C-alpha cells in the first residue's frame, strides 16, 4: 500500500517534460471544471486519493489554459505588429484610404488567425475550456485547496495538507474552521514551519512581501535584492494580464441576441472594455489574497522602498535611479525631491545628472497615459464609464468637463450621505417606539410549538422560546439509565481512541459509527444487543424530532456517531478554549462577519441535528447556543443521561461545547437530512434482528 501511494504521488509532483504552454496537438487537455466536479464527487464518497488526483490536475490545467492564452496572444502580437509594411501597401494606417484600411484589417485578421491557431493547437477547440462564472468563482476563492487539505490529511500527507490549508486560509482569513485546522496542524509532530506556504502566491507579490520583511528588519541589501526581483516579475505579470484582457466581449447585462451596434461602435465597445481591463491590471497586480484592498500606489512604492534601501546600502547611483523613477509618477513629491538632491550632492552633481530613470517605467507610464486618454474620450463621447485606478495620473489627462462633473458628484454624494444619516437616526427612534408593538404582533402570529412526542416517558424540558432561539428543543427521558450505561460501555469498547481531536489539544477523543458497532456486533466483539441499541435509539430520536417539529417530509440520517471526549488532566491549567468550537452544521460560519456560507466543504444537505447525552459525571462540557458572532451565548444545556437537545442545522443555531476539564463526556451525535440521496448507507441495510428500545 505504501509503495502504491508513493508511485501515485510521484505522478503528482514530477514535472512534465514539456512546459505548460508546449502542449501537443495530439493531447487533449481535460477541462478543469470537469476535473473539479469529479474531485468534489469523490470527496463526498470519501475517495480521498481520487480527490487529490483530480483536484491537483484541475489546478494544473487551469494554470495551463491561462498560460497558453497569454503566451499565444503575446507571441502573435510580436508576429503581426502593425508597424510592419505590407507588400504593395506600406505601413497600414487606418483612415488613410480604403486600401490602407484593408491593410490594417488584414493585420487584424492575421493576428486573429494566429491566436486561434495557437490556442487550438495547444488546448483544443475554444469552447472546450469555457467554464461558468460559478466555477471561476470557486477557483478565485481557492475552494479546491479546501478539499485538498481534507483529502491530504485523510491519507496522512501532512506537509501537503498544511500547504493546502494555508493556501486556502490566506485567501479566506475569516474562515473559522480552517484557522482551527491550522492551529491543530502546528501542534502535530512532523509538521515544519516551511510547510505553511501559499501555493498560489504570485512571484512579484511574494518577492515584494519578502523584501518588505527584510526592509523592516533593516536588512536593506537583502530587501533591495527582492524588490528588484519583484519589479521584474511585476512587468512580466503585467504583460500577461494585459494579454489576457484581449478576450471575448463581455455583454455585461446585454442580451447578445439583441446587441445590434454597427461595425465601428462594436469595435469601440469591445476595445474600451479591453482598455478598461488593461488599466485594471494595476489593481489586480497590487492585490494579494486575504487583503481587502490592494496596496495603494504599488509600483511607485516599490521604487520608494528601493531608493531608501540603496541609500542605506550606500549605493547612491542606484538610489538616484530609483528616486528619479519614483518622480516619474509623482514629480512634485517634496520628500523624494529632497532625497534626490541629497543623493546627488553625495555622489556629485555632474555624475548624478547622467543617471536616468528606468526606461521600462517610462514606457509603461507613456502607454498607460495614452490608454487613459482614449478611455476618457470614450467616457465623454459614448458614456462608457472609466474609473482611473491610479493616484499618479496627471490632472490634465482627465477632460475639464469630467473633472467638474466629478467634483459636483462628490459634493452631491456628501450631501446625500448626511441626509441619509439624519434619516437613519429618525428611523432608529421610530423602531424603538414600535418595538413593543412588534413583539406583541409576533407573539400573536407565531404558531404553537411542538407536535406529539410519541413516547410516554419523554417530556419537553425547554422549548425554542425558553432556549432563546428557533427550531430548538430540550427533551428528557429519551432513554433509561441502563441504556445510557450500555451505550457508554459500547463507546469505550469499540471506539477508535487515543488521537487528539481537531478541536483542542487538551482532550482525547474517541468515536464509533453505527456501521462499525454493527460489524463488531456481528463479529462477536461486542454484544449484538448493544450495537442494536445504538441503532434503535438513534431511530427513536429521529422519530421524536420529526414529530415534534411537525415536519411534512420524512427525516433521513446523514451521519450517526457515538463520541466521548476525555479531559487530559495535565493540560487543563489556564485553559480557555472550547471542547468543540462554535460552528453551524450545514454552513461555514464566518463569525467576524455574522454570516454563514452554505457551501462546501460544509455538509449543506444537513437539515436537523440532535445530541443524546449518556452521562453527567464530568466537569465542564456544557452545550451552548450562540449568536452568529460565536461569542454571545443565548442558551446553555447541561448534559445528563437520556437528555436530547434537538435543533435545526442552519444558521439560526450556531452551537459549541465548552471545555471538558475533568472526566469523560459521552453522547450520541446525530445529523439528519430531508434529502434521501444523502441517507447514511448503513440505514438502508437490514442486517440486525429486531430488538425493542424501552421508552
UniProtKB/TrEMBL annotation:
<keyword id="KW-0408">Iron</keyword>
<keyword id="KW-0802">TPR repeat</keyword>
<dbReference type="InterPro" id="IPR039575">
    <property type="entry name" value="P3H"/>
</dbReference>
<keyword id="KW-0325">Glycoprotein</keyword>
<dbReference type="InterPro" id="IPR005123">
    <property type="entry name" value="Oxoglu/Fe-dep_dioxygenase_dom"/>
</dbReference>
<protein>
    <recommendedName>
        <fullName>procollagen-proline 3-dioxygenase</fullName>
        <ecNumber>1.14.11.7</ecNumber>
    </recommendedName>
</protein>
<keyword id="KW-0256">Endoplasmic reticulum</keyword>
<comment type="similarity">
    <text>Belongs to the leprecan family.</text>
</comment>
<keyword id="KW-0223">Dioxygenase</keyword>
<feature type="signal peptide">
    <location>
        <begin position="1"/>
        <end position="19"/>
    </location>
</feature>
<dbReference type="InterPro" id="IPR006620">
    <property type="entry name" value="Pro_4_hyd_alph"/>
</dbReference>
<keyword id="KW-0560">Oxidoreductase</keyword>
<dbReference type="InterPro" id="IPR056585">
    <property type="entry name" value="Leprecan_dom"/>
</dbReference>
<dbReference type="InterPro" id="IPR044862">
    <property type="entry name" value="Pro_4_hyd_alph_FE2OG_OXY"/>
</dbReference>
<dbReference type="InterPro" id="IPR011990">
    <property type="entry name" value="TPR-like_helical_dom_sf"/>
</dbReference>
<keyword id="KW-0732">Signal</keyword>
<dbReference type="GO" id="GO:0032963">
    <property type="term" value="P:collagen metabolic process"/>
</dbReference>
<keyword id="KW-0847">Vitamin C</keyword>
<dbReference type="GO" id="GO:0031418">
    <property type="term" value="F:L-ascorbic acid binding"/>
</dbReference>
<dbReference type="GO" id="GO:0019797">
    <property type="term" value="F:procollagen-proline 3-dioxygenase activity"/>
</dbReference>
<keyword id="KW-0479">Metal-binding</keyword>
<dbReference type="Pfam" id="PF13640">
    <property type="entry name" value="2OG-FeII_Oxy_3"/>
</dbReference>
<dbReference type="Pfam" id="PF23557">
    <property type="entry name" value="TPR_leprecan"/>
</dbReference>
<keyword id="KW-0677">Repeat</keyword>
<dbReference type="GO" id="GO:0005783">
    <property type="term" value="C:endoplasmic reticulum"/>
</dbReference>
<feature type="domain" description="Fe2OG dioxygenase">
    <location>
        <begin position="560"/>
        <end position="674"/>
    </location>
</feature>
<dbReference type="GO" id="GO:0005506">
    <property type="term" value="F:iron ion binding"/>
</dbReference>
Amino acid at each position: 500500500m505504501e509503495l502504491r501511494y508513493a508511485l501515485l504521488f510521484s505522478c503528482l509532483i514530477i514535472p512534465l517534460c514539456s512546459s505548460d504552454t508546449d502542449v501537443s496537438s495530439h493531447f487533449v487537455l481535460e477541462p478543469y471544471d470537469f476535473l473539479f466536479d469529479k474531485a468534489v464527487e469523490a470527496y463526498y464518497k470519501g475517495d480521498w486519493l481520487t480527490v487529490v488526483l483530480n483536484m491537483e490536475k484541475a489546478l494544473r490545467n487551469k494554470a495551463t489554459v491561462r498560460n497558453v492564452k497569454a503566451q499565444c496572444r503575446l507571441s502573435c502580437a510580436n508576429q503581426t505588429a502593425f508597424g510592419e509594411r505590407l507588400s504593395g501597401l506600406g505601413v497600414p494606417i487606418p483612415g488613410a484610404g480604403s486600401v490602407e484600411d484593408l491593410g490594417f484589417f488584414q493585420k487584424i485578421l492575421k493576428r486573429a488567425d494566429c491566436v486561434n491557431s495557437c490556442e487550438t493547437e495547444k488546448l483544443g477547440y475554444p469552447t472546450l475550456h469555457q467554464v461558468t462564472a460559478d466555477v471561476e468563482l470557486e477557483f478565485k476563492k481557492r475552494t479546491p485547496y479546501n478539499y485538498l487539505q481534507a483529502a491530504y490529511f485523510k491519507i496522512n500527507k501532512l506537509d501537503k495538507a498544511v500547504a493546502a490549508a494555508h493556501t486556502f486560509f490566506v485567501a479566506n482569513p475569516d474562515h473559522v474552521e480552517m484557522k482551527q485546522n491550522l492551529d491543530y496542524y502546528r501542534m502535530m509532530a512532523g509538521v515544519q514551519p516551511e510547510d505553511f506556504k501559499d501555493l498560489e502566491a504570485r512571484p512579484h507579490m511574494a518577492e515584494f512581501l519578502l523584501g518588505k520583511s527584510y526592509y523592516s528588519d533593516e536588512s536593506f541589501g537583502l530587501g533591495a535584492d527582492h524588490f528588484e526581483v519583484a519589479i521584474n516579475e511585476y512587468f512580466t505579470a503585467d504583460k500577461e494580464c494585459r494579454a489576457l484582457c484581449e478576450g471575448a466581449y463581455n455583454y455585461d447585462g446585454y442580451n447578445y441576441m439583441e446587441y445590434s451596434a454597427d461595425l465601428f461602435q462594436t469595435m469601440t465597445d469591445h476595445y474600451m472594455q479591453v482598455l478598461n481591463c488593461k488599466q485594471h491590471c494595476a489593481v489586480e497586480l497590487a492585490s494579494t489574497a486575504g487583503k481587502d484592498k490592494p496596496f495603494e500606489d504599488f509600483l511607485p512604492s516599490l521604487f520608494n522602498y528601493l531608493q531608501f534601501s540603496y541609500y542605506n546600502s550606500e549605493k547612491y547611483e542606484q538610489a538616484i535611479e530609483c528616486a528619479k523613477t519614483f518622480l516619474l509618477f509623482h514629480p512634485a513629491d517634496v520628500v523624494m525631491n529632497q532625497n534626490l538632491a541629497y543623493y546627488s550632492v553625495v555622489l556629485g552633481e555632474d555624475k548624478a545628472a547622467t543617471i536616468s530613470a528606468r526606461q521600462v517605467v517610462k514606457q509603461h507610464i507613456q502607454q498607460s497615459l495614452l490608454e487613459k486618454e482614449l478611455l476618457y474620450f470614450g467616457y465623454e463621447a459614448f458614456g462608457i464609464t472609466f474609473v482611473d485606478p491610479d493616484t499618479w495620473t496627471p490632472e490634465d489627462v482627465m477632460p475639464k468637463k469630467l473633472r467638474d462633473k466629478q467634483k459636483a458628484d462628490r459634493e452631491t454624494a456628501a450631501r446625500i450621505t448626511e441626509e441619509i444619516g439624519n434619516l437613519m437616526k429618525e428611523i432608529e427612534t421610530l423602531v424603538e417606539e414600535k418595538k413593543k408593538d412588534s413583539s406583541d404582533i409576533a407573539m400573536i402570529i407565531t404558531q404553537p410549538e411542538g407536535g406529539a412526542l410519541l413516547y410516554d416517558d419523554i417530556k419537553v424540558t425547554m422549548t425554542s422560546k425558553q432556549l432563546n432561539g428557533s427550531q430548538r428543543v430540550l427533551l428528557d427521558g429519551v432513554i433509561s439509565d441502563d441504556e445510557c450505561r450500555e451505550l457508554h460501555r459500547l463507546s469505550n469498547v469499540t471506539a477508535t481512541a487515543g488521537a487528539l481531536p481537531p478541536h483542542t489539544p487538551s482532550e482525547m477523543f474517541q468515536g464509533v459509527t453505527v456501521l462499525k458497532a454493527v460489524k463488531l456486533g456481528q463479529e462477536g466483539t461486542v454484544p449484538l444487543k448493544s450495537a442494536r441499541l445504538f441503532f434503535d435509539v438513534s431511530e427513536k430520536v429521529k422519530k421524536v424530532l420529526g414529530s415534534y417539529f411537525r415536519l411534512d417530509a420524512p427525516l433521513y440520517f446523514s451521519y450517526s456517531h457515538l463520541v466521548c471526549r476525555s479531559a487530559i488532566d495535565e493540560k487543563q491549567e489556564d485553559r480557555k478554549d472550547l471542547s468543540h468550537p462554535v460552528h453551524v452544521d450545514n454552513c461555514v460560519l464566518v463569525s467576524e462577519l455574522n454570516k454563514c456560507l452554505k457551501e462546501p466543504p460544509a455538509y449543506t444537505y444537513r437539515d436537523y441535528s440532535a445530541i443524546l447525552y449518556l452521562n453527567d459525571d464530568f466537569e465542564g462540557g456544557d452545550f451552548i447556543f450562540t449568536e452568529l458572532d460565536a461569542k454571545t451565548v443565548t442558551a446553555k444545556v447541561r448534559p445528563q443521561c437520556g437528555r436530547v437537545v434537538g435543533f435545526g442545522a442552519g444558521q439560526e443555531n450556531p452551537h459549541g461545547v465548552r471545555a471538558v476539564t475533568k472526566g469523560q463526556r459521552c453522547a450520541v451525535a446525530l445529523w439528519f437530512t430531508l434529502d434521501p440521496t444523502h441517507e447514511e448507507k448503513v440505514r438502508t441495510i437490514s442486517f440486525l434482528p429486531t430488538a425493542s428500545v424501552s421508552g
